[in-house]
Amino acid sequence: MSEDKNSNENKSVGAKGYILPAIVVAFSFAIIYTVVVAIPNLPSLKSEPSKYAMEYVEKEADGTIKRDEQGLPVLNDAGKGRAIYVREGCFYCHSQFVRPQDRDFGSRVFAGDYANETPNVLGTSRTGPDLSNEGGKLPDEWHVGHLKNPREYNPGSIMPSFSYLPDEDLGYLVSYLQTLGRKRMDDPENRHIYEAYYPEADEAFWHASEHHKPNVDSAAAANAGAGIFRQNCAVCHGLNGLGNGPNALAMAKKPANFSRPYYKAYSDKTWYWRVAEGVPGTRMPRWKLKLEPEQMWYLVAFLKTLPQDKSPIIEPYQTIDSEAWQSQSALPERITDNYEKLAKNKKKGGKSSKGGHGGH
Amino acid sequence: MIRRIFSSEEGSAAKFFMFSAIVWLIVGMGAGLLGALEFSFPDLTKGVAQLSFTRLRPAHVNTVAFGWLSMANIGACLYIIPALCKTKLFSEKLANFSCYLWNIGIFVGMLTLLNGYTEGREYAEYREPIDILFVVALGSVSYNLFRTLLNRTVKKLYVSVWYIMGAFFWMPIIFIVGNRTFVAMEGLNDGILNWFYGHNILGMWFTVLGVGIAYYMLPKMSGKPIWSHSLSMFGFWTIAFFYAPTGTHHLLQSPVPEWLKALAVIFSAALVIPVISVLVNFYMTMKGSWWMLTTNMPIRFVLTGAFWYLVTCLQGPFQATRGVNWYIHFTQWVVGHAHAALLGTFTFFVIGAIYYGLQRLTGKRIYSVRLVKWHFWLLLIGFFLFFASLTIGGLQQAVGWALGYPVAQWGLVLPPMWLVRSIGGVLMFLSSCLFGFNIYMTMREKPISSELEIKVAVPIEGDSK
């Protein structure tokens, strides 16, 4: 090697002759640093908060930020949930920006939407779905249950179970999730984008449905719905709605089991919307393409009566030994305790999952 | 204990860094393996917060990046720089003290990350007190090496010195910028800065150190001079110029300013220039000496690293272009690429340097050459399974999303890939345990020569026990 030539000189050489290159290295780095780091952070180039930027702090009546004794801003529920989102590392698998090429992810995002975000949770991997517009798509109860037991709600999911989080943390986390993109979705200008799966923003959708709405609490409507259910739904969901129809055996994502307690928390509208829009990512079709609004309301009336152990409306299917059939195609054991606890809390007015603002 | 920590024995700091690195390699890889298994068995550690994948991931990344690779590289540099400057290290005591601090940082950092105390920025997860610890440790190592450089007795600087000293100049700055909790940034600026840091610890730290080490190892072991000194310097200056602004290519489809994206794409593509010049120089240096691959274990590791360097650094510039990034961003392909750089390339480089350097430093012959070979093949096969499964899985994800399938549904095609990845991970973890065992047994042997410069250090087939 070339440096060996001078090895017999045995005194130190020092920095002679290398000061200029050293300055060049430092200077080139300084230029790059200025261009890449300093300039984008100039106050004049910072993007102003847009109307969709999320709010994470409590505001006083006059619009100033509320502060505690130490002068720190007081976080609202979503802000507390965001801290848990960061602490638990959700952003390693869930991105939070909709790219131009992403279909069915909701409207695109802009720089101002992120004005209140620090640290950033843009994400680098989509091992799970993007959450930019997650708020309002699913009920709070679904989120809490899904966070605790992801595979109960979403068969095939590899999301870790967050059952170790206390109920309070889960409530804040769900508040945060329900806030994501909510302003964007509630904006009337964006209605056309969300018609597909946010029908509350679509007046025509609800107008048509309300126009044909029967009394969904009547036995007659439920009886009518039972026939529609047998013809269309039972092949996957089973005759008793236990999610054990013949087709279920071949499905990677099993059909819903309506005897689960959290379906009891569904409102009529949630039922209707779910039937009409289907479940993205599963074989559940968008029934509004096939059924009339009136038929779907009959279905809702029937679904509300499930589970039907005490219900006199429908006779249990007798020709097959239904218990044997159920045990053959039984789903994994249900974990009902969580939901029941949750339902109790809710009745007491506990704050276990107080999600979202406005919207519904 | 205290005497050992503040030892002034020549070479003690380099050894201390290398041994610590090997321990962190096994710990960090174990964390990574458990995390990988949770992809196949999601309820494996259900209910244990500290072992949830989302907590294991930052612990794994930071432990292998700062515990294993950084410490191993520093250990190698503490040997290489004095050797190239033909002088002693400026202060062994200071270097030992740095290593002590560094170990505390990694240990406390791992515990805090597992317990959820995180800054939440990728690659910069350690909290403020640990950041300060690292800045002190890194600054003292830098100071030490620059003082060593000033004490040198040779006039001309070999290219490895340029690379290594460049890394020790850039890294403290990048680390302080990346972990600035004293300047809270909001919105996308936080993301831009995050990736300025996240990509530059790869580019201005691991790459530069790794290439510097390989430039030292290849001529030294093959006994031939470097093919072209001017080409090697060309590679250094181009890498210094092109690498720094590339970080924004992690955010290409996000709403960051377009001119920053354009800058990142152009400079990322231009990185082909230093990569090709470095590799041409490596391969031309080896011309006529390729037979050494069969008998010389350190050179086998370094050249395998050079092969993965070719793979990962040809992927990199293409990935950063808008068209390819459109397709593969957010997929598992990127995870495979990141591991090809840090595990495939720089880990192989530095393992070669450890096998070579430790024998020189201690005057002891390696305990078992057979174990070195097992280490090599398990690591290589394990890593190949890992890389291939993630690359194929990433392409499957990419095609699914391009066709418009939802993420949740298309994710169902990946489980076989995750299983293959875990199998690769088991092999790699096993190889690291063999590595640790081999080094431990080597240290228990008696030195065959008390001289620092012994000639028999390179394990040759037939010499094995």
How many DSSP-defined strands of chain A? 0
CATH 2nd-level architecture of the domain at 8-155 in chain B: Up-down Bundle
Structural class of chain B: mainly alpha
The CATH superfamily name of the largest domain in chain A is Cytochrome c-like domain
Q: Roughly how much helix do the residues of chain B carry, as a percent range?
A: over 70%
What is the typical, i.e. mean, pLDDT of chain B?
A: 89
Radius of gyration of chain A: 28 Å
Number of helices of chain A: 13
Shape of chain A: elongated
Greatest interface by residues involved: A-B, 86 and 88 residues
Topology order of chain B in helix (H) and strand (E) letters: HHHHHHHHHHHHHHHHH
Count of helical regions of chain B: 17
Task: Name the average pLDDT of chain A.
Answer: 75
Number of DSSP E strands of chain B: 0
Biggest pleated sheet of chain A = none
The CATH architecture of the largest domain in chain A: Orthogonal Bundle
- Strand proportion of chain A, as a percent range, falls in under 5%
Task: Describe it.
- The complex is a heterodimer of chains A (360) and B (465).
- By secondary structure, chain A is mostly helical.
- Chain A has 2 domains: 77-191, Cytochrome c-like domain (Cytochrome Bc1 Complex, Chain D, domain 2, Orthogonal Bundle), CATH 1.10.760.10; 201-348, Cytochrome Bc1 Complex, Chain D, domain 2.
- Chain A has 13 helices and no strands.
- Chain A has helices spanning 19-38, 77-87, 140-148, 150-153, 167-179, 182-186, 191-194, 203-211, 219-237, 268-277, 293-303, 322-328, 337-348.
- In chain A, helix 3 packs across helix 5, helix 9 packs across helix 11 (293-303) and helix 10 packs across helix 11 (293-303).
- Chain B is mostly helical and 465 residues long.
- Chain B has a domain at 8-155: Four Helix Bundle (Hemerythrin (Met), subunit A) (Up-down Bundle), CATH 1.20.120.
- Chain B is built from 17 helices and no strands.
- Chain B has helices at residues 2-5, 12-40, 53-85, 92-114, 128-150, 159-178, 188-222, 229-242, 258-270, 272-285, 292-295, 297-320, 322-328, 332-362, 369-402, 407-410, 415-444.
- The longest helix of chain B has 35 residues, at 188-222.
- Chain B is globular, with a radius of gyration of 21 Å.
- Chains A and B meet through helix 1 of A and helix 3, helix 6, helix 7, helix 8 and helix 14 of B.
